[in-house]
Amino acid sequence: MEVIYGLNPIKEALIAKSREFFDILVGRERYDEIANLAHGIPLHTVSKKEIDKISRTEAHQGVAARVSGYRYVPLEQLFPLKIVLVLDSIEDPQNLGAIVRSAHTLAGAGVVIPNKNAASITPSAVKASAGATEHTKIARVPNLRSAAQVLKKNGFWLIGMEAGQGEPLSKAPSFEKIAIVVGGEDAGIRCVLQDEIDVIVHIPMKSAFNSLNVAQSASIAIYELATRRQG
């Protein structure tokens, strides 16, 4: 069991039926909004301090819920998709949540993350995604390189994002199925995974100062490689 919090994350989890809900703690100002979706789920009207305590944050927007843990999917469930994000050691759950949000809203993409040395789908990642985690197919794998090899065998071309390397993003070839590989906040894509990448691209900058974080870079890549070309 875990506690998720925030208005959109809980609403999306209720809509997606992605979790088993044990109960929901809600402030009076949010009660009607949540009650309309929470059919048959115990609702408790409580104070902000009580929600602060159970959620361990003040960023709960007046609602928290005790739910079952996040359900990852097998890698095979991503094979029918056209776009997949392969996240190599993203450590910040805020970045992970933001990337999942972009992946889902811009392209209906799946996501692959490693099960070690990386952020997982925690309540803070769910909040950062605005609930997009509850609709997104996310596979958590023991070996990211092996997962990349399996994706390639199933028709995906791997496009790696690396600052200042390869071709400009806009020059990337068009493929029917792509897996966008994004490296960690500090080290980028690890060498062991770079060996599997088909094309390396970068986002051209107008100044020497690289002001884009990994979540922003991923969003631009998703838009350029998926949304704009399919639009």
Kindly describe this structure.
The chain folds into two domains: 66 residues, 60s Ribosomal Protein L30, Chain: A, CATH 3.30.1330; 156 residues, 3-Layer(aba) Sandwich (Alpha/beta knot). The protein is elongated, with a radius of gyration of 19 Å. By secondary structure, it is an alpha/beta fold. Strand 2, helix 2 and strand 3 form a beta-alpha-beta unit. Helix 4 runs parallel beside helix 8. It has eight helices and eleven strands. The longest helix has 17 residues. The mean pLDDT is 93. It has a seven-stranded parallel sheet with strand order 7-6-5-10-8-11-9, with helices on both faces.
What is the domain tally?
2
Assembly form of the protein: single chain
CATH superfamily of the largest domain: SPOUT methyltransferase, trefoil knot domain
- Please count the helical segments: 8
Uncertain runs are none
Structural class: alpha/beta
Helix proportion? 25-40%
- Average pLDDT rating: 93
CATH class of the largest domain: Alpha Beta
